[in-house]
Design goal:
Blueprint (H helix, E strand, L loop, with lengths): L13 E7 L2 E7 L5 H8 L1
């Protein structure tokens, strides 16, 4: 099976929350335009 060389990108930052049986799961996604901005989130 061959996969095309395409991918989706993030247009804007977003958050999500899921609660189940007393547990809470948080999700965060950030739109990154440069290496300098990425280092703010990961360092």
């Amino acid at each position: 099976m061959s996969y095309p060389d395409t991918f989706f990108t993030i247009v804007e930052s977003a958050t999500g929350e899921f609660k189940d049986k007393g547990s809470k799961f948080l999700a965060f996604i950030f739109a990154i335009d440069s290496k300098e901005i990425a280092t703010r989130y990961y360092l």
